[in-house]
Write a structure and sequence with these properties.
The protein is α+β, with helices and mostly antiparallel strands. It is about 35% helix and about 20% strand. The chain has helices spanning about 5-20, 50-55, 110-125, 150-155, 170-175, 245-250, 265-275, 290-310, 320-335, 340-355, 360-365, 365-370, and strands at about 25, 65-75, 95-105, 130-135, 165-170, 175, 180-190, 210-225, 230-240. Strands 1, 2, 3, 4, 5, 6, 7, 8 and 9 form a 9-stranded mixed beta sheet that branches. Helix 1 (about 5-20) crosses helix 6 and helix 3 packs parallel to helix 4 (about 150-155). It is globular, with a radius of gyration of 21 Å. The two termini are about 20 Å apart.
C-alpha cells in the first residue's frame, strides 16, 4: 500500500469525521447519472447538487446531510475541463485525480470552515504557517458585491499576518455552479514551496513555487441571471483539496509524480521493461521522452482502472470513446516506448488496485474485470 498517500487521505476524512462531526459519504461513480451532464464526474460537489439546488427527492438519504466529508474520484477528459493533452508534458496534470472535500449544508459557515481548515493544515498535517497564503474575494462593483471582509477578518483572527491575506476578483475568488444557481465567494489556501518570503507576489500567477492546495467556497447567493444575484435562505460550504497536489506538498516536492501515488507504478514499469528509472524530467530536459511516457502510462492506467471498475466499457461514441482513446494511448506507450506486452498493463492494474482499493473498494472488487 502507498503509505503516505493513504495517510493523507485517511487523516483528512478521519479529522472531519471524528473531530468535526461530519458524515462520510463514499465517492460517486465517475460516470454521471441521468440529468448530471454528458461528461465524467470532475468535482466533488457533483453528487450533492440537489442539496445546493434545494431539490432533494422525498425520502432521499441526502435529506439528513448537514456535515459531509469524502474523497471523490474525478476525471478530466472531455468537456470544459480537459487535461488529456497536457498529461505527461508537465508535473501537475492528470486525467484521473482525487478530490478531498468537506461540506456544510445549511449548518456551519465561514468562521467554522476556516478554523477547521487551518487546524488541519497546521496541527495535523504540520505545514509551516509561514508558508501559507490566503486569498479572499475583492468584490465586484458591477454586481454590487462588496469585498469579503468577513473572510479576511477570520484569517486575521487566526493569527495570519496581513501580508499573507490577498484580495482577488471574480476570476479567482468567486465560484459559480453554472450560468444560474447557487454561487458565492471563496477563499483559497496556497502553499509556498520555496519558503524564503516573497511568495505573495506568486499567488495565482501559475508559478510552480506557490500553488493552491485548498479552495473553500461559501455558497451564499443564487444567480438568477448574469447580472442578478440574491442571498440564499440557507448558506452552504463546499471545499476541495486535490490529493495529488497535497501529497506533493507533504513529500516536499513540486512534482505530483514524485509521490507514493506514482512511484510504485514507475517501479513496476522499470522492473518489467528494463528501461532506465524514472527521472522526473520535462520538456527539453527529457531528451528521450522516456519520463513523459512514464507519466502518460501511469496516469492513464489509473483513469482506465477507475472507469472500467465503475462499469464503463470502451466504445466508439460517448464517454466510452474517451476511455477507448485513453486505453489506446496507454497501450501505445507500453508497446512503442517500453516494448512490453500485456504483462506490464496487468501488473499496473494490480498496483492501482493496491493504491486506490482501500479508498474506493469498487476498484479492488472489480480488478479482474478491469484486467
Amino acid at each position: 500500500m502507498s503509505g503516505e498517500v493513504n495517510w493523507c487521505d485517511r487523516v483528512f476524512i478521519d479529522y472531519f469525521k471524528d473531530e468535526q462531526n461530519h458524515k462520510f459519504v463514499p465517492s460517486s461513480s465517475v460516470i454521471p447519472k441521468k440529468g448530471e451532464g454528458t461528461y465524467f464526474t470532475n468535482a466533488g460537489m457533483n453528487q450533492f447538487r440537489p442539496l445546493f439546488l434545494g431539490a432533494v427527492p422525498p425520502g432521499s438519504v441526502m435529506a439528513d446531510y448537514k456535515r459531509v466529508v469524502n474523497s471523490q474520484k474525478c476525471i478530466r477528459v472531455g468537456g470544459k475541463h480537459n487535461d488529456l493533452d497536457d498529461v505527461g508534458h508537465d508535473l501537475s496534470h492528470h486525467t484521473f485525480f482525487e478530490m478531498l472535500g468537506n461540506w456544510s449544508f445549511g449548518d456551519y459557515f465561514k468562521k467554522e470552515a476556516c478554523n477547521m481548515a487551518y487546524k488541519l493544515l497546521t496541527e495535523v498535517y504540520h505545514l509551516p504557517p509561514e508558508r501559507l497564503y490566503f486569498t479572499y474575494f475583492s468584490g465586484e462593483k458591477a454586481l454590487n458585491l462588496l469585498p469579503d471582509e468577513e473572510c479576511r477578518s477570520i484569517w486575521l483572527e487566526l493569527g495570519i499576518p496581513d501580508s499573507h491575506i490577498l484580495p482577488f476578483g471574480m476570476k479567482d475568488n468567486f465560484w459559480d455552479m453554472g450560468e444560474t444557481g447557487p454561487c458565492g465567494p471563496c477563499t483559497e489556501i496556497h502553499y509556498d514551496h520555496i519558503g524564503k518570503g516573497g511568495g505573495a507576489s506568486l499567488v495565482n500567477t501559475g508559478s510552480a513555487d506557490v500553488v493552491e492546495i485548498w479552495n473553500l467556497v461559501f455558497m451564499q447567493y443564487n444567480r438568477e441571471s448574469e447580472d442578478r444575484l440574491h442571498l440564499l435562505t440557507n448558506q452552504h460550504v463546499d471545499t476541495g483539496m486535490g490529493l495529488e497536489r497535497m501529497c506533493a506538498v507533504l513529500h516536499g516536492t513540486k512534482s505530483n509524480y514524485r509521490t507514493d501515488l506514482f512511484t510504485p507504478l514507475f517501479d513496476i514499469i522499470h522492473k518489467i521493461s528494463k528501461v532506465p528509472v524514472y527521472g522526473d524530467k520535462v520538456g527539453t530536459d527529457d531528451t528521450t521522452g522516456l519520463d513523459t511516457a512514464y507519466r502518460i502510462l501511469a496516469d492513464h492506467m489509473r483513469m482506465i482502472s477507475a472507469t472500467l471498475a465503475d462499469g464503463l466499457l470502451p466504445d466508439r461514441v460517448g464517454l466510452g470513446s474517451k476511455v477507448r482513446h485513453v486505453m489506446h494511448r496507454a497501450i501505445q506507450q507500453s508497446i512503442d516506448v517500453f516494448h512490453c506486452d500485456k504483462t506490464l498493463l496487468l501488473a499496473l492494474v494490480d498496483q492501482v488496485s493496491d493504491s486506490l482499493g482501500d479508498t474506493y473498494p469498487e476498484i479492488a472488487k472489480n480488478k479482474q474485470k478491469v484486467k
